[in-house]
Amino acid sequence: MTLNFLVLFMLIIPSLAGIAYGHTVDSVGEYRVEIGWMNEPVVSGETNAIEFYVSPLLPNLELEDQVFENGVSDLKKTVKIQLIYKDDSITLPLSPDHNIPGKYYAFINPTVSGFYQANILGTIKDTPISLSMHPPKVAERSYIEFPEPSDLTVTQMIDGHTVLIDDVSNLKNSVNNLEKTKSNDFGIVGIGVGIIGIIIAVIALVKSKNN
Predict the structure, then answer these.
(1) Integer Cα distance of 196 and 162 in angstroms
(2) pTM higher than 0.90, yes or no?
(3) Which of 106, 128, 144 delimits the end of a domain?
(4) What is the pLDDT of residues 124-163, one digit of tens each?
(5) Which residues fall within 8 angstroms of residue 48, CB to CB, at 6 or more apart?
(6) CB of 51 within 8 A of CB of 38?
(7) DSSP assignment string, 177-209
(8) 87-101: average pLDDT
(9) How far is residue 37's CA from residue 22's CA, in Å, rounded to a whole number?
(10) Of 52, 136, 151, 197, which is most buried with the most CB atoms under 10 A?
(11) How many domains does the chain have?
C-alpha cells in the first residue's frame, strides 16, 4: 500500500510543477504577486492574456516557498499592467476572474515574437506597486503551424498582387502607345482591348484580396 502511494505521489508532483511552469513570482510590501501567460505556449498573432495573481505573503516563508492563497480582490481600478516590447508600450486594464478572488487578466494579442516586459503599476490596497516582471518569451507562430506557415500563403498572395499590378501598368502603357498611333480605327480597337484587359485584371485583383 505504501509503495503504491509513493508511486502515485511521484506521478502527481511533476504534473503540479507543470501547472506553475512559466509564471514569475515576486513580492511588494506584504503581498505576493505572480504573472504568466494564460495560454502556453504563447505564440505571436493569437489573443492571449497576462495572468496576474495577488495574495498576502504567508509568515515565516521564503519567497520561493510562498503560494497563492487568500487572493486580494477589488484591484481592477487601482492596478494596471504596462506591457513593453522594445520601444513600444501599451497600458492594459485588469479584468478579475469571477471564480478566483485575487486572480486577474490583462488581455492582449502579441503580434511579434520575442521577450516582453510587464510593469505592474498602481496600488494594492494602501501599498504602492511599481514592479517590472518578465513573462516567458512569445514564440513565432510559424513554429506550430501545419502543414505550411500562414506567412507563406501571405507571401504568395502579395507576389500575385504584384504581378497583377505590373500587368495593369503594362496594359496602361500599351493603351497610351496605341493612342499615339496614326490609324484611328486601329487605335480605337487597341484602346478597347486594353480597357477590357484592365477590367479583367482589376476583377482578378479584387477576388484575390477577398480570398
Answers:
(1) 19
(2) no
(3) 144
(4) 999 999 999 999 999 998 777 777 666 544 444 444 555 5
(5) 37, 38, 39, 42, 107, 108, 109, 110
(6) yes
(7) HHHTSS-HHHHHHHHHHHHHHHHHHHHHHHHHH
(8) 97
(9) 8
(10) 52
(11) 2
Q: How many CB atoms are closer than 10 A to CB 49? A: 20
Express as a percent the part of the chain with pLDDT over 70: 60
CA 84 to CA 23: how far, in whole Å? 17
Beta bridge partners of 107: 49
CA 103 to chain centre: 21
97 by DSSP, 3-state: which?
coil
Domain assignment of residue 49, given as a range: 22-144
Question: Exposed, middle or buried, 133 (CB in 10 Å: 0-12/13-18/19+)?
Answer: buried
Residue 204's pLDDT is what? 56
Whether the predicted pLDDT of 38 surpasses 90: yes
**Same-domain status, 123 and 69:** yes
